[in-house]
Structure to design on (73 residues):
């Protein structure tokens, strides 16, 4: 069971890193100030929400496929 937990942790870490990189590149154009502007913060919020929603839908579909495959065995 520990291997499955390790795989899940690695998958979540990878997803988080990809989301951070993509949303930052999309939303933060220049480093003018140390804080995010309102527009940048809004963009990051929306980007993260879309990324997490998409990830949840993919997980749901994969779980359904795994359950169907388990029933066929």
């Amino acid at each position: 069971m520990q291997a499955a937990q390790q795989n899940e942790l690695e998958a979540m870490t990878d997803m988080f890193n990809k989301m951070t990189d993509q949303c930052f590149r999309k939303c933060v154009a220049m480093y003018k100030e140390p804080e995010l502007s309102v527009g940048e913060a809004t963009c990051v919020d929306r980007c993260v929400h879309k990324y997490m929603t998409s990830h949840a839908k993919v997980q749901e579909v994969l779980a359904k496929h795994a359950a169907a495959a388990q029933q066929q065995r």
